[in-house]
Amino acid sequence: MALVFALAQPAEAQRAELARARTLYNQRQFDGAIEAAAVASKTPATADAATVVLARAHLERYRERANPEDLSAARAALGTVRVSNLDARDSVDFQMALGEALFFDDDYGAAATIFESGIDAAAAQGPQTGEAMLEWWGSAIERHADSLERDARIAASGRLRDRMTRELAKNPGSAAAAYFLVVGIRGAAEPVEAWNAAIAGWVRARLAGARSATLRADLDKLVLEGIIPDRVGSVAADKRAQEESDLRGEWAVVKERWK
């Protein structure tokens, strides 16, 4: 019994270190998360889950500091993970990390494929995780579409539109779906429908809870810098300025009515 107890103490310590790494990651203290995850990765029982945390912390630190060493470290860590040892939640985090690494390498098409395949599994882990995967997928599709020729761009944007329509039907409070629905419609070359979807998204934003203000700020920027210019692009040059002014006025009225 003494031997069992002696062996259990290090294992418990490593599990505590893994929990600490996750807590630090969620608190956006990525330096500390990396240190704690590195310690937890030294024990077989926690090695693979800890390595996922380690990789994701490096990816988040890369977003903050743009140090390519963090991106390289994340890739290297992901390459050592034994996926069969991960539980369902860690598997989702692993898949998200793979997609993020590709995204940060500007390989948006491949990233979108990985994110899309993980949307349902992520949603099963809770609304926050599902929303994160959905947002990553929307961002990847948007950037991938921007690199395509017109017909392919419209097709990719149509996929984004259709998926976000389904996601909103399941969860009307999804900020990611509300925003990227508008992005998809706009990318599918439907500026009037994008305008209508933006208004609906603004009005429905209260359903997004804590993300309401961010959603509205993103929609406001998209309308002013994207949708309105799209709508006036086909207007005769001598009438374009007035049409843009009118649309900006209409949008201001919507925002005032639905504060």
Structure description:
41% of the residues are buried. The protein is mostly helical. The longest helix has 25 residues, at 2-26. It has two domains: 11-83; 150-259, no CATH class. The chain is built from 13 helices and no strands.
Q: Report the structural category.
A: mainly alpha
What coarse outline follows from CA principal-axis ratios?
elongated
Number of DSSP strands?
Answer: 0
Distance between the termini: 66 Å
- Our count of helices gives 13
Share of β-strand residues: under 5%
Number of domains: 2
Instruction: Provide the helix percentage.
Output: over 70%
Radius of gyration: 22 Å
Mean pLDDT: 94
Order of SSEs = HHHHHHHHHHHHH
The biggest beta sheet, please? none
Low-confidence stretches: 1-9
Note the main attributes of this structure.
259 residues; mainly alpha; disordered N terminus
In short:
The chain has 259 residues and is mainly alpha-helical.
Describe the protein's topology:
Layout: H1 2-26, H2 30-40, H3 47-65, H4 68-78, H5 88-104, H6 108-117, H7 119-124, H8 127-146, H9 150-170, H10 175-187, H11 191-204, H12 212-232, H13 237-257
Helix pairs in contact: 1-2, 1-3, 2-3, 3-4, 3-5, 4-5, 5-6, 6-8, 8-9, 8-10, 9-10, 10-11, 10-12, 11-12, 12-13
